[in-house]
Amino acid sequence: MNSRVASETTPTQAHALATFAIELSDAQIPSAVRNKARLHFLDALGVALASSTFEFAPAVLTAARELGEGTRAHALGSGEALPAASAALVNGTLAHGLDFDDTHIAAIYHASAPALAAALAAGEACAASGADVLTAFIVALEMGCRLAGVAPGEFHARSLHPTAMCGVFAATATSARLNGATSAELTHALGLAGSQSGGLLELSDGWLKRLHPGWAAHAGLVADALGRAGFKGPAAVFEGANGFYKAHLGGQPDPKLNPTLALGEEWHALGIAIKPYPCCHFLHGFVDCALALRDKFDLDEIARIELPIASALERMVGAPRDQKVRPAEIYQALFSVQWAVAVALVKGRVDLAAYYDEPLDDPRLLYLASITHCVDDPVSDFPKHFPGEVRITLKDGRVLTHREATSLGTPERPLPQAELEAKFIANASRALGAAQAARVLTTVLRIDELSHLGELMALCARKE
User: Fold this and answer.
1) 116: alpha, beta or left, given left = phi > 0 and alpha = psi -120 to 50?
2) Is residue 211 helix, strand or coil?
3) What is the Cα–Cα distance from 249 to 150, expressed in whole angstroms?
4) Of 21, 396, 401, 413, which residue has the fewest beta carbons closer than 10 angstroms?
5) Domain 13-276+442-459 belongs to what architecture?
6) Cα separation values, 289 from 74, 312, 319, 398, 404, Å
7) Which alpha helices (DSSP H) does 102-178 contain, by range?
């Protein structure tokens, strides 16, 4: 016999976050937050649709079918009906599949991928309105950013991916809100989500990183279902003696970064950055600089290129040097600062075509990458920002330099909405064609008016 969980009274971080997630009203959400969330929802949806045309999409869809039959939610692109948790697994994987989804800069966290996957799946399954789905999406953005931001850069330093580690809690909150959970039930669900939180950064040539938001969303829906069913979880999942912080960070984080501080007053979601380029966000500032310098010389005039970079970043996107200057497969290229700068200088664009449709071993790219060197950047403020600088020494001795304190698409340098919409159309058109992609765009921009997600999800399925 199912029983409702008794009211939670323990003043833990999980309880505070759960209360925020369940009790937040639309009137408490600033218009700037809601408007930004709508655009990030659109952006992540476009990336997921583009991903549905790549080789990893059938693999995750086939695996999801084996988990069981269901019709309560749908996979993006294919339109296949699935159980809600399985749809979340597929759609979260697609949303991060091309490394083109957004990033909270300070937290180094891909916020929208797990949030979108959970909101779509849970929202479809419970026939929620578009406005309710967007609010639940906002809850997930805020919770995930806050949790990933408790120790900036530290998850990566421990070979953990904060999108996977913290996305599960964000997805749990989204599902719980849409399914009408109490704050006590969500507190238990967050406790259960803690043991489903994981994400190694041992990527090699595998597809693991793509899976992280999908698994986080899937696990979040499972944790929510358990919490609502009365299955108890540890309320001190975060700060407990054997909790999340101790296990994954080695101890308690700085109290000034407590994720419950100023909930509903300060909005961490406003710090999320849109990606204009489909590669690791750490590379974007360098791409901006390369594009800014490109028209000031001929490529055959270049003698040497230097990239001042923080040592922590250089280890992730500049080394090992032999792999970065001559990437053998896509994921090596996505995380190579030398190769990204070469692409920007040679092609004047850094887009999906450069990574996926055109050869990685273009001799022009390999040559420029080979004369590109990472050097120490003593003034970098990483991880607060992801700065970029390119110094190009020409054969006549001239040195041309350009530096950006932060990349295009960040809150300090926002991507104009017209460019964000163009990015969506380009991505979604890969799966749907331009006309259908345009209909999806207009539907998302009026998501608050939808009585349910049926119209949107139908538009997000390819017409055979």
Assistant:
1) alpha
2) helix
3) 10
4) 396
5) Orthogonal Bundle (1.10)
6) 41, 20, 20, 17, 7
7) 112-125, 130-148, 154-157, 162-178
The CATH architecture assigned to 281-404 reads 2-Layer Sandwich (3.30)
Q: Is the separation of the CB atoms in 223 and 217 below 8 Å?
A: no
Dmax over Cα atoms in the chain, in whole Å?
82
Distance CA 150, CA 237 (A): 14
Instruction: Give the DSSP H or E segment for 248.
Output: helix 244-249
Q: How far is 238 from 17, CA to CA, in rounded Å?
A: 11
Contact in structure between 267 and 33 (CB atoms under 8 Å): yes
**3-state class (DSSP) for residue 348:** coil
Same fold, 13-276+442-459 and 281-404: no
pTM over 0.85: yes
List the domain boundaries for the chain.
Answer: 13-276+442-459, 281-404
Alpha carbons 303 and 285: distance in angstroms, whole number: 22
Nearest of 180, 202, 199, 183 to residue 191 by alpha carbon: 183
Which one, of 419, 279, 411, 267, lies nearest residue 350 by Cα? 279
What is the spatial order of strands in the sheet that 302-309 belongs to? 372-376, 302-309, 388-394, 399-404
Per-residue pLDDT of the chain (464 residues; tens, 9 = 90+): 233 333 444 589 999 999 999 999 999 999 999 999 999 999 999 999 999 999 999 999 999 999 999 999 999 999 999 999 999 999 999 999 999 999 999 999 999 999 999 999 999 999 999 999 999 999 999 999 999 999 999 999 999 999 999 999 999 999 999 999 999 999 999 999 999 999 999 887 789 999 999 999 999 999 999 999 999 999 999 999 999 999 999 999 999 999 999 999 999 999 999 999 999 999 999 999 999 999 999 999 999 999 999 999 999 999 999 999 999 999 899 999 999 999 999 999 999 999 999 999 999 999 999 999 999 999 999 988 999 999 999 999 999 999 999 999 999 999 999 999 999 999 999 999 999 999 999 999 999 999 999 999 999 999 86
Name residue 402's beta-bridge partners.
Answer: 390
**Residue-wise burial string across 296-330, b where 16 or more C-beta atoms lie within 10 A, e elsewhere:** ebeeeebeebbbbbbeebbebbbeebeebbbbeeb
Containing 291, the helix (H) or strand (E) segment is: helix 284-293
SS3 annotation, 351-398: CHHHHHHCCCCCHHHHHHHHCEEEEECCCCCCCCCCCEEEEEEECCCC
End-to-end CA distance of the chain: 45
